[in-house]
Q: What sequence folds into this?
Protein backbone atom coordinates (compact mmCIF):
# COMPACT_ATOMS: atom_id res chain seq x y z
CA UNK A 1 0.00 0.00 0.00
CA UNK A 2 1.41 3.38 -1.04
CA UNK A 3 1.80 6.08 1.60
CA UNK A 4 0.18 9.33 0.48
CA UNK A 5 0.49 12.98 1.42
CA UNK A 6 -2.31 15.41 0.61
CA UNK A 7 -1.60 19.08 -0.09
CA UNK A 8 -4.32 21.74 -0.10
CA UNK A 9 -4.06 25.50 -0.47
CA UNK A 10 -6.57 28.31 -0.42
CA UNK A 11 -5.68 31.92 -1.12
CA UNK A 12 -7.76 33.75 1.46
CA UNK A 13 -8.94 33.15 5.00
CA UNK A 14 -12.60 33.13 3.94
CA UNK A 15 -11.98 30.19 1.57
CA UNK A 16 -12.11 26.64 2.92
CA UNK A 17 -9.86 23.73 1.90
CA UNK A 18 -12.48 21.14 2.85
CA UNK A 19 -13.70 20.76 -0.74
CA UNK A 20 -10.18 19.89 -1.88
CA UNK A 21 -9.68 17.66 1.16
CA UNK A 22 -12.89 15.69 0.54
CA UNK A 23 -12.02 14.94 -3.10
CA UNK A 24 -8.40 14.08 -2.31
CA UNK A 25 -9.38 11.71 0.49
CA UNK A 26 -11.87 10.07 -1.86
CA UNK A 27 -9.21 9.67 -4.57
CA UNK A 28 -6.73 8.20 -2.06
CA UNK A 29 -9.34 5.70 -0.91
CA UNK A 30 -10.24 4.71 -4.50
CA UNK A 31 -6.57 4.08 -5.30
CA UNK A 32 -5.90 2.18 -2.10
CA UNK A 33 -3.45 4.76 -0.68
CA UNK A 34 -2.81 5.15 3.04
CA UNK A 35 -2.83 8.86 3.96
CA UNK A 36 0.10 9.60 6.27
CA UNK A 37 -0.18 13.40 6.38
CA UNK A 38 -2.36 16.29 5.21
CA UNK A 39 -0.71 19.67 4.59
CA UNK A 40 -2.71 22.88 4.26
CA UNK A 41 -1.78 26.45 3.49
CA UNK A 42 -4.05 29.47 3.77
CA UNK A 43 -1.88 31.87 1.82
CA UNK A 44 -1.43 33.25 -1.68
CA UNK A 45 0.21 30.87 -4.12
CA UNK A 46 2.55 33.69 -5.15
CA UNK A 47 4.35 33.44 -1.81
CA UNK A 48 7.61 31.55 -2.13
CA UNK A 49 7.53 30.45 1.52
CA UNK A 50 4.47 28.55 2.68
CA UNK A 51 4.48 26.64 5.98
CA UNK A 52 2.48 23.69 4.65
CA UNK A 53 4.52 23.34 1.47
CA UNK A 54 7.77 23.71 3.41
CA UNK A 55 6.67 20.92 5.79
CA UNK A 56 5.61 18.74 2.85
CA UNK A 57 9.02 19.15 1.21
CA UNK A 58 10.87 18.39 4.47
CA UNK A 59 8.86 15.20 4.90
CA UNK A 60 9.31 14.28 1.22
CA UNK A 61 13.08 14.48 1.66
CA UNK A 62 12.78 12.23 4.73
CA UNK A 63 10.91 9.60 2.69
CA UNK A 64 7.67 9.77 4.69
CA UNK A 65 5.43 9.08 1.67
CA UNK A 66 5.41 7.62 -1.84
CA UNK A 67 2.84 9.82 -3.56
CA UNK A 68 1.59 13.41 -3.27
CA UNK A 69 -2.03 14.21 -4.12
CA UNK A 70 -3.08 17.77 -4.94
CA UNK A 71 -6.44 19.10 -6.06
CA UNK A 72 -4.81 21.11 -8.88
CA UNK A 73 -1.24 21.90 -9.84
CA UNK A 74 -1.82 25.63 -9.26
CA UNK A 75 -2.54 24.81 -5.62
CA UNK A 76 1.04 23.61 -5.05
CA UNK A 77 3.10 25.65 -7.54
CA UNK A 78 3.20 29.39 -8.15
CA UNK A 79 4.45 29.11 -11.75
CA UNK A 80 5.24 26.54 -14.43
CA UNK A 81 8.90 26.76 -13.49
CA UNK A 82 8.09 26.16 -9.82
CA UNK A 83 5.91 23.17 -10.76
CA UNK A 84 8.68 21.70 -12.90
CA UNK A 85 11.21 22.21 -10.11
CA UNK A 86 8.89 20.41 -7.68
CA UNK A 87 8.20 17.58 -10.14
CA UNK A 88 11.92 17.20 -10.76
CA UNK A 89 12.62 16.93 -7.04
CA UNK A 90 9.75 14.48 -6.53
CA UNK A 91 11.15 12.38 -9.38
CA UNK A 92 14.62 12.35 -7.76
CA UNK A 93 12.98 11.29 -4.47
CA UNK A 94 10.92 8.56 -6.24
CA UNK A 95 7.68 10.25 -5.20
CA UNK A 96 4.71 10.16 -7.56
CA UNK A 97 2.66 13.31 -8.14
CA UNK A 98 -1.09 13.17 -8.77
CA UNK A 99 -3.24 16.18 -9.64
CA UNK A 100 -6.99 15.62 -9.30
CA UNK A 101 -8.21 18.39 -11.63
CA UNK A 102 -5.70 17.94 -14.46
CA UNK A 103 -5.66 14.14 -14.11
CA UNK A 104 -1.85 14.13 -14.09
CA UNK A 105 -0.32 11.04 -12.52
CA UNK A 106 3.45 10.69 -12.78
CA UNK A 107 3.18 7.09 -11.60
CA UNK A 108 2.30 6.02 -15.14
CA UNK A 109 3.91 6.50 -18.54
CA UNK A 110 1.30 9.00 -19.80
CA UNK A 111 1.71 11.23 -16.75
CA UNK A 112 5.48 11.18 -17.07
CA UNK A 113 5.15 12.07 -20.78
CA UNK A 114 2.87 15.00 -19.96
CA UNK A 115 5.46 16.31 -17.51
CA UNK A 116 8.15 16.06 -20.21
CA UNK A 117 5.91 17.95 -22.65
CA UNK A 118 5.16 20.65 -20.07
CA UNK A 119 8.89 20.92 -19.39
CA UNK A 120 9.68 21.28 -23.08
CA UNK A 121 7.06 24.01 -23.48
CA UNK A 122 8.39 25.82 -20.42
CA UNK A 123 11.94 25.63 -21.81
CA UNK A 124 10.73 26.99 -25.16
CA UNK A 125 8.98 29.84 -23.37
CA UNK A 126 12.15 30.68 -21.40
CA UNK A 127 14.22 30.67 -24.58
CA UNK A 128 11.74 32.92 -26.39
CA UNK A 129 11.81 35.37 -23.48
CA UNK A 130 15.62 35.37 -23.53
CA UNK A 131 15.63 36.02 -27.26
CA UNK A 132 13.19 38.92 -26.90
CA UNK A 133 15.33 40.42 -24.13
CA UNK A 134 18.46 40.10 -26.29
CA UNK A 135 16.69 41.78 -29.20
CA UNK A 136 15.68 44.69 -26.98
CA UNK A 137 19.26 45.17 -25.83
CA UNK A 138 20.73 45.24 -29.36
CA UNK A 139 20.95 48.57 -31.13
CA UNK A 140 18.79 48.68 -34.24
CA UNK A 141 20.56 48.03 -37.51
CA UNK A 142 20.71 51.04 -39.74
CA UNK A 143 19.96 50.63 -43.39
CA UNK A 144 20.90 53.10 -46.06
CA UNK A 145 17.93 55.01 -47.32
CA UNK A 146 16.88 54.06 -50.78
CA UNK A 147 17.03 57.21 -52.89
CA UNK A 148 14.00 57.30 -55.10
A:
Amino acid sequence: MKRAALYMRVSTLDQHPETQLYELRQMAQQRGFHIVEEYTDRISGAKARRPGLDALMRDARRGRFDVILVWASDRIARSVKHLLDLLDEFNRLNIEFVSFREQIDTGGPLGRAIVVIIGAIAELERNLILERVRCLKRPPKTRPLNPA
